[in-house]
Specification:
Layout: E1 11-15, H1 20-31, E2 36-40, H2 43-50, E3 58-61, H3 67-71, E4 77-82, H4 102-108, H5 113-116, H6 123-137, E5 144-148, H7 161-164, H8 169-181, E6 187-192, E7 194-196, H9 205-209, E8 217-222, E9 230-232, H10 233-243, E10 252-261, H11 268-273
Parallel strand pairs: 1-2, 1-4, 2-3, 4-5, 5-6, 6-10, 7-9
Antiparallel strand pairs: 8-10
């Protein structure tokens, strides 16, 4: 276990903290009494979620799409956990400057630039350009950069990932991954499969059905993008936080899914040692 994270002098920056996984990451960091700074566009939302009499988080207002807002958020930061993302398919989350019509959407399957010019929050803007910007402006002595990515990145031409990648979400995430890997910063890249369990913040079938593991499925890690299934947001968040404590996760990329009968406790040290 790495003792560096236990120091009260460490500041862990959480990006994407108001999303489903991000909310849980913040909660788990606070439960360990670790200093947390949240990089957000909405101070009021963060205050409502996290700041109360028992816990306080530091707040940095900014946007991963704007370099000048990132620099000040990096002061005294020793680790970063990045849980950002947007919808894989065109939606309001893409923040279109002008609403695309059906023809635009259909044509963009063959030429993604058609929608990119109208979208301020597309996968390419967030998962590629935004992540690259964060990595470029991160402290050079960073202890760890933990990035939540996605299963299927290496199988984007296979079903069902080919459908998921119609508008380039897996391409964008892979570009973000590659940039982090080549940056020289110690990294851990976590690739969940289809996310289930609350908080339900995404616009997908699992949200509509309130899909859940009911806490009964075990945590399985894999490498080489060969496993599939569903991933509990709760366990993905735990993997983000726990990975900070183990050198066995440094410069590792792994997938996480929930399968099989759950053990009484999740032995993260054993799971990470098998990577």
């Amino acid at each position: 276990m790495n003792p560096v994270v236990n120091s009260s002098e460490n500041m862990i920056l959480v990006v994407g903290a108001t999303g489903g996984v991000g909310q849980l990451v913040v909660g788990k960091l606070l439960a360990k009494n670790l200093p947390v700074r949240i990089f957000t566009r909405n101070r009021d939302k963060v205050n409502q979620m996290f700041n109360h009499e028992n816990h306080q988080v530091d707040i940095a207002i900014g946007d991963i799409r704007e370099s000048d807002t990132i620099t000040s958020a990096m002061v005294n930061v020793t680790s970063i956990i990045c849980c950002t993302g947007t919808s894989a398919f065109p939606s309001d989350k893409w923040q279109f400057t002008t609403s695309p019509n059906f023809i635009d959407v259909a044509l963009s399957i063959f030429n993604r630039d058609i929608l990119e010019g109208k979208a301020k929050n597309s996968p390419m803007k967030v998962d590629s350009e935004g992540v690259k910007r964060l990595v470029s402006l991160a402290p050079k002595n960073l202890h760890r950069f933990v990035l939540v990515s996605s299963c299927g990145i290496l199988r984007k031409n296979e079903f069902p990932f080919k459908i998921l990648n119609l508008f380039g979400v897996l391409d964008a995430k892979k570009q973000g991954e590659d940039f982090l890997i080549n940056s020289g910063i110690p990294y851990t890249i976590i690739r969940p499969a289809r996310l289930i369990d609350g908080p339900y913040t995404s616009s997908d079938l699992n949200t509509l059905l309130q899909a859940t593991t009911n806490g009964k499925l075990n945590v399985v890690l894999g490498t080489g993008d060969q496993i599939s299934g569903e991933s509990s947001r709760i366990d993905v968040a735990a993997a983000c936080v726990e990975s900070l404590f183990y050198e066995t996760t440094v410069n590792k990329v792994f997938e996480i899914v929930n399968q099989g009968e759950r053990t009484n406790t999740i032995d993260w040290e054993r799971l990470f040692s098998q990577l």
